[in-house]
Design a protein that fits this description.
Main location: membrane
Radius of gyration: 33 Å
Number of helices: 26
Distance between the termini: 21 Å
Protein name: ABC transporter
Keywords: Cell membrane, Membrane, Transmembrane, Transmembrane helix
Membrane topology: Multi-pass membrane protein
Largest sheet: 7 strands, mixed
GO molecular function: transmembrane transporter activity
């Protein structure tokens, strides 16, 4: 019996190819994700490591940096053979085209030394004060070569030109960001404060003993010391580097596996639908097997064995494809100056292979049970109907799940959400979505059956609609794979549109139209120390506010703190207060997100901890509306330590914007904007992230297209005699092709419309949870919706090409004689 089914499977290579394609894409995506994540981790961990540092004494805060006396004191410790100071200072590299090179300038500058930090790839190290060595990758991005003149903007705003004499690759310590500019005369450029001091132990001195001595010398302990300094051995720093690489790889894997899971979910619908149709077409074959003595268990096992073979073959091919795609991705995005280590983890390949087989078996389980449960006599009928009891069960279960999900979302529809509210709201949305998937056949019948009565023009269209209605379970399963991918794309588009609205409203609510914003040209960078003073001294500027950003601990974990001048705050910004007062003389002003998350109200007392030895209890004066990227709280700068007054991320000024633009005309590292330009850049950056998400969800839509092709092909096979009769009574090949094509458009159009509607609802919940926005305020991404619906029609046309040709070319006499 099993051999007969396998021979039948091999005889229908088209439907086998469609199922294999769905499995291969899902498994390949999953394995490729694993290969990329593991290879990235191995490449980072396998990069050349430094062996010339036994102990590193590091400054965690700017005011904890080391002087020459500190270095000399550490150098004088017993067992120290050599001590050297390392700078990590602000240095902005200007590209050959006059624009800022894409390197964060905050810690890009360092001092050249003969240690293992630098590996020269071209030229030599700097030897004179007017020379610089550049990171090879950064020099290539900036269009600079050895011998060129490079413009560098230093931390005090001074612009200097240096001759590029060499290119290098960098070996970091632990989680150290790699600098991109190295100078020989660093003290003259950066001052006399070192970021860390590296110690080399004399022969016979252990790393641990030297680290303990160094910790005692700086007045702290091993690890993070009270003065913001840390003492680590070389071995500890090597482990830190490897741990960081592993954490980054794990983060990439977790994010990418979510997209792989969506692709596999879409594949489940394709596989389940195919097996449902195969079981329906084989009813007579199963009946004969049952009649000659086969038991239900044997039939069920045969169907599952067939699924196992398909799953095994598809998963094996998918694993091989995934390994190849992962390696191609690493090769495409790898750097010429860095060694790429390819890693094919048996765990990753095994996980992808197992997932593919399990998904196939689970998808086929329901069909195997239905095929085994039909009595032999009843199975001799060639028509297939959905049992009424199955429809009733679907109706009850689907409605229960949908109602429970909607109720859960409605119960947490307020805007003052804590973490539990957010989790339950998303859970409710997912439960409601599962309910809709359970109800899919009933919904397909409810929507398409009335449509079949309304459609009166065009016999091909009437036939197409009625064929789609004939088996609503099949139509729903085919459309569901489209719904999964399209709903997720639409949901994230809603989130993106909502993000633009929320971020725009928040910035416009905080920044008056008359205020000019001075900020770094690179997102995430910090302004050089001279910028606030330059803004304040610019003629025509009536008031200016430097907004730094630091992190402190408070009663509920960590919070971002902006220490500002209260008078300058009132003159330049307008805090949109929801509750309480904006007067920093009465206490701190807290972002609503934190207030709602932890149920903090104006008048409450909270404790801010700036270090292990320094804290302050403050009163919450007010709560202001905004979004999560804005400062967690504003506080009077007189109440915080000195280190919280630097690290400025933006300066807000009133007065002449033209004067500010002139003041920073030769500073490509500085942007002078109004609030609308700030919003526009923010939204563009988020749209770039969304475009990547759309591309990843596209894998599910590709699988869904294979599902449509597979369904139509099997449907044509199922209706061989019907098509033959149509041809016999005068229907031409064009009519048959048009009918199949219109049926495909009906199915994809229904799936596209349902996917958009589900996506809009899901997106409303996600933006409610992520942005604390009212649940019913859904910004419909109209362009994407229109493109999606038109795209579904095109998908329907393309998917029907092969099945329609096959149907139109069927032999009339053979088709009429077919059983």
């Amino acid at each position: 019996m099993l051999r007969a089914m396998l021979r039948d499977l091999a005889a229908h290579k088209g439907r086998l190819a469609m199922m294999l394609a769905a499995i291969v894409l899902g498994v390949g995506f999953m394995v490729a994700t694993w290969v990329i994540a593991d290879s990235t981790a191995r490449s980072a961990a396998g990069a050349p490591a430094r062996t010339d540092v036994d102990v590193a004494v590091q400054a965690r805060e700017p005011d904890a940096r080391f002087t020459a006396d500190d270095r000399n004191r550490l150098a004088a410790l017993p067992g120290v053979e050599r001590a050297s100071g390392v700078y990590a200072a602000h240095a902005a590299l200007v590209a050959a085209d006059g624009k800022l090179a894409g390197v964060w300038p905050d810690r890009a500058g360092t001092n050249w030394d003969p240690s293992q930090r630098f590996t020269v790839t071209s030229g030599r190290g700097p030897e004179r004060a007017d020379e610089v060595a550049l990171g090879a990758a950064e020099a290539d991005a900036a269009g600079l070569r050895v011998g060129d003149s490079a413009r560098v903007i230093l931390g005090d705003g001074a612009s200097r030109r240096f001759t590029v004499v060499g290119l290098f690759t960098y070996r970091g310590l632990g989680a150290e960001p790699a600098p991109s500019l190295a100078f020989v005369d660093a003290p003259a450029l950066f001052g006399n404060a070192f970021d860390r001091v590296e110690l080399v132990a004399a022969t016979g001195t252990g790393q641990a003993a030297l680290a303990d001595a160094a910790a005692a010398a700086i007045g702290g302990d091993r690890g993070d010391a009270e003065r913001g300094r840390a003492v680590r051995t070389g071995a500890e720093l090597a482990d830190e580097r490897d741990d960081l690489a592993a954490d980054n790889a794990r983060s990439v894997r977790e994010v990418m596996l979510a997209f792989a899971a969506v692709a596999l979910l879409a594949g489940m619908f394709v596989i389940a639908n195919t097996f449902t149709m195969l079981v329906t077409q084989r009813t007579r074959q199963y009946a004969l097997l049952r009649a000659v003595g086969a038991s239900r268990r044997q039939v069920r096992r045969a169907v599952l064995a067939e699924a196992g073979v398909i799953g095994t073959v598809g998963s094996a091919i998918g694993a091989a494809v995934g390994v190849g795609l992962g390696m191609l991705a690493m090769a495409a995005f790898g750097s010429e100056t860095a060694t790429v280590v390819y890693s094919v983890s048996p765990v990753g390949v095994g996980a992808g292979f197992t997932a593919g087989v399990v998904v196939t078996l689970v998808s086929a389980w329901g069909s195997a049970r239905r095929g085994a449960a039909v009595p032999p006599v009843a199975a001799l009928r060639s028509d297939a109907t959905i049992p009424r009891r199955a429809l009733r069960v679907r109706l009850v279960v689907g409605l229960a799940l949908f109602a429970a999900g909607v109720a859960l979302v409605a119960a947490h529809s307020g805007t003052r959400l804590d973490e539990t509210d957010r989790v339950l709201s998303v859970l409710g949305a997912l439960v409601a979505w599962v309910g809709l998937l359970v109800l899919a056949p009933l919904m397909a019948a409810a929507v398409l059956r009335p449509l079949s009565r309304v459609v009166t023009r065009g016999p091909a269209l009437r036939l197409a609609v009625r064929n789609a209605v004939r088996d609503p379970r099949r139509t729903a399963a085919t459309a569901s794979s489209l719904v999964v991918g399209l709903a997720l794309v639409t949901a994230f588009a809603v989130v993106g549109t909502g993000f633009g609205a929320v971020a725009g409203d928040a910035i416009r609510g905080l920044v008056p139209a008359s205020t000019t914003v001075v900020e770094p040209a690179l997102d995430g960078a910090r302004l050089s120390a001279d910028v606030p003073a330059t803004v304040a001294a610019t003629p025509g500027v009536t008031a200016s506010l430097a907004v730094p950003r630091g992190w402190a601990d408070w009663d509920h974990g960590g919070i971002s703190v902006s220490a500002v001048d209260p008078a300058a705050l009132a003159a330049t910004l307008h805090l949109p207060i929801e509750r309480g007062s904006s007067d920093l003389g009465q206490g701190v002003v807290l972002l609503r997100w934190y207030a709602d998350q932890f149920h903090v109200e104006p008048g409450d007392r909270v404790t801010l901890r700036f270090s292990d030895t320094e804290s302050r209890e403050v009163t919450v004066a007010g709560v202001y509306s905004g979004w999560e990227a804005q400062p967690g709280l504003f506080i009077d700068r007189a109440l915080v330590p000195e280190k919280y007054r630097g690290d400025v991320e933006a300066v807000y000024a009133t007065g002449s914007r033209a004067a500010l633009e002139e003041a920073f005309r030769d500073r490509p590292d500085i942007l002078v904007s109004d609030r609308d330009e700030v919003v526009s850049r923010l939204v563009r950056g988020f749209e770039l992230v969304l475009s990547v998400i759309y591309a990843l969800f596209g894998a599910a839509l590709v699988i869904a297209v294979f599902g449509v092709v597979n369904t139509l092909a099997l449907s044509v096979l199922e209706r061989t005699r019907e098509i033959g009769v149509l041809r016999a009574v005068g229907a031409g090949q064009a009519f048959v092709r048009r009918a199949v094509r219109l049926e495909s458009i009906v199915i994809t159009g229904y799936g596209g419309l349902l996917g958009v509607l589900v996506g809009l609802a899901l997106g409303g919940v996600l933006q409610h949870v992520m942005l604390a926005r009212e649940l019913w305020l859904i910004d419909v991404p109209v362009p994407l919706v229109l493109v999606s619906l038109v795209g579904m029609v095109l998908v329907g046309v393309v998917a029907a090409v092969w099945p329609a040709r096959r149907a139109a070319r069927s032999d009339i006499l053979a088709a009429v004689a077919a059983e």
